[in-house]
TrEMBL record:
InterPro entries reported in the protein's UniProt record: Acyl_CoA_acyltransferase, GNAT_dom
PANTHER family listed in its UniProt record: N-ACETYLTRANSFERASE (PTHR43072), UPF0039 PROTEIN C11D3.02C (PTHR43072:SF23)
Pfam families associated with the record: Acetyltransf_1
Name assigned to this protein: Phosphinothricin acetyltransferase
UniProt entry keywords in alphabetical sequence: Acyltransferase, Transferase
UniProt KW DNA repair keyword: no
Amino acid sequence: MSVENETKVRFALERDLQAILEINNHEIKHSTVNYDYAPKTLEFQNYWFQEKAKAGFPILVAERENQIVGFATYGTFRPKPGYQFTVEHSVYIHPQFRGKGIGYSLMKELISHAKEKGFHLMVGGIDASNLNSLHFHRKLGFQEVGRFKEVGWKFDQWLDLIFVQRPL
């Protein structure tokens, strides 16, 4: 894996799950980045980790000074065979470490991994209010391909979802 700007990107280990859980739960509780309502448990995060491993999908973590500051993964876009060459990704950065190139380091490795595995296209769903994520994805070569109006509901408001894609 790589080291950029003092950030080490590597495959996640079980010992990283508590940190991944904390980053994930922060977004569930405080943002519309993740449309879940209830925080996840460590048991759930472990199940998620095991299922990703069984399916051969990577979970990457970004580490700075022995602290997990972000993670990224991809998985099945849709379960039908015709979608087998398309993956959907997620990338989450600890709030105190945003804007420091960590997301870029994670995504660079994630895209490289997907290419090596023979995938054709990577997609992502971005809450329309998250302009920073949309700009970030554009810099990585993703293009907006669709907007779904009021497809989500969280914090007593309707949420619009933007889909982006990038050929691999």
